[in-house]
Amino acid sequence: MTIPVVTAQGAAPACSVEYSVTSQWDSGFQGAVKITNNTAAVSSWSLSFDFANGQKATQGWNAKWSQSGTTVTAANESYNGSLATGASVSAGFIGSWSGSNAVPTSFKLNGTTCNVDSDPSPTPTEPPATGTAPALHVLGNKLVDAGGATRRLLGVNRSGGEFMCVQGYGIWDGPVDDAAIGAIADWKANTVRIPLNEECWLGLSNIKPEYGGANYVNAVKDLVARVEAHGLTPIVELHWTYGQYTGNSAGCSDVHASCQKPMPDAQYTPSFWSSVASTFKSDQAVVFDLFNEPYPDRATSTTTQAWQCWKDGGTCPGIGYEVAGMQDLVDAVRGTGAKNVVMAGGLAYSNDLSQWLTYKPSDPTGNLVAAYHVYNFNTCANESCWNSTLAPVAAQVPLVAGEIGENTCGHSFVDQVMKWFDDRSLSYLGWTWNTWDCSSGPSLISNYDGTPTSYGIGLRDHLRAVNP
After folding, report:
1. SS3 sequence of 278-316
2. What single DSSP character describes residue 445?
């Protein structure tokens, strides 16, 4: 269901608080608070409020969250304690509820009551009806539907959700309406991978409100529903994350989620996946791709250190922030009760699966898939490497090439990739369904009506051949 934002405010208050439920599911919810200080500047802050229906705040971010009885307290972190006059700070949390989830009616900032009388919430609206995409699970080394029929994931990536919101331009890059998804289906694709941004999903304070939190979550839910309505499998994937990394192969020096980082961060990524998994756990047609392209191997001095970092996270050599390992993220997803299929990409930007089986995370549901990316300029980009490193993985678990592509503006390389994967009944998705320059993208289309580039012709014609 769509939960409206409820704003608590009053006439010339000493402080104002905006409290919102950005997502809600059968037994849990994601909440957010925006605190504005309207009095003298403070060097530290503590917000308190009471739940009326037995709700529990279980984890959070941008504040130290605690709960005693019905009273919830959010105290500043070391990095966001200063609040000037008129300044605001945002924080979020994951909570549980049962029966009812009424919004708090009273807030106190540093002991001062904020005037928070608010209008009654509007009636929530229901999300679009569930589409015809099949529920999926792992059986041996295959993905199968509820009837046991094998399902290869063959399709495209739809980039935009990872960068538009953090850059302040919107949520999607180009149209994602019914006609746009219909154009993807017309290529005979059966899967769409949707890259996301954790700061936008969680609604952190550096994201414009119109592009973050509830607005972003609802936009993702709408797109997932639209993809499913065309019978296509949606893969929701975490692309850009928080954490400052300036080491080897750094994509940016920004602490915020504005580029690809070497590994997910412990501060926000488990909360992101707890929220995403809770949002979609009742719909096993949705596949979760944990982290786009890990590259801890560029930061650490040994391959063993890199794989240990990949699996277990923590303090990783060469990475200045605390890392969430793949096991942490699998645990975050499964901790919600979600049984959705989960994808985990290997080292070297998901191009190296050489020790994936050795460091494979434990998944109590058995619904774990190996993810692989390959472009013509990667190290493992030939049949010899595929035979030696991919084939052993594919013999034990499903293997999905979440991104395939080339920067030649042609399709000779992806033709080779698709043949090798076809011969073994494996899955692949082309990068990307966006109207960019094919050599920098690379881009499959020149128009969102599905007009292919010379590179895109290769994937389009191949999908139509294997999925007539």
Report:
1. HHHCCCCCCEEECCCCCCHHHCCCCHHHHHHHHHHCECC
2. B
